[in-house]
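retry 2 of 3: previous attempt timed out while embedding cobalt (II) ion. Reduced batch size to 1 and resubmitted. Inputs unchanged:
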Amino acid sequence: MKSYEKLLENNKNWASATIEKDPEFFHRLSNTQTPEYLWIGCSDSRVPPDSITGTRPGEIFIHRNIANMVVHTDLNMLSVLQYAVEVLKVKHVIVCGHYGCGGVKAAMTQQSFGIINKWLRNIKDVYRFHEEEVNSFQNDEDKLNKLIELNVQEQVMNLAKTSIIQKSWKENNAPHLHGWVYGLNDGLIKPIFEMPAGTHMDPLYEFDNL
Ligand code: CO
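retry 2 succeeded.
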């Protein structure tokens, strides 16, 4: 059997096992989705949002990219965010990074990786904002993990700066923004930063005519 055929085989087994346990499962989900969470995570194959949070189909709306970035010119991310906030009306947006992230690690080097350099430059900016704090750690692994935490924090702040979130905070007093970091070593998620709806930022980021 070719490796991809295994996936199709697994799928058939999963579908029949699911129906056996809950005959209405697919019928129910095929009509509507009402997820309470938007997850913005790293593409890393070792950080599957559903498995690590024990959530089922229909419960989390998901966007993933390298190093869980919130980049204001990323039309893909903005479309997902707008749909999640304005149509699905999610209550929580979670940015989840992970310790040992290869994207953040690559951004800490001077090595060129091709087109991804442009993406990683956003992380180099995070490093520049927090250089002193990152460099207060002695070994490279601690430095990397501190930058991973600070990167999650900055991406949550980037979310808060979008007109989508600003508008929703003003009109619906939601969603609550969370910054989490997942540990590849122990499988545990550490909450490190949060911005409840209405958190004040530098007024320069707050629009008065939304
Ligand atoms: Co990663």
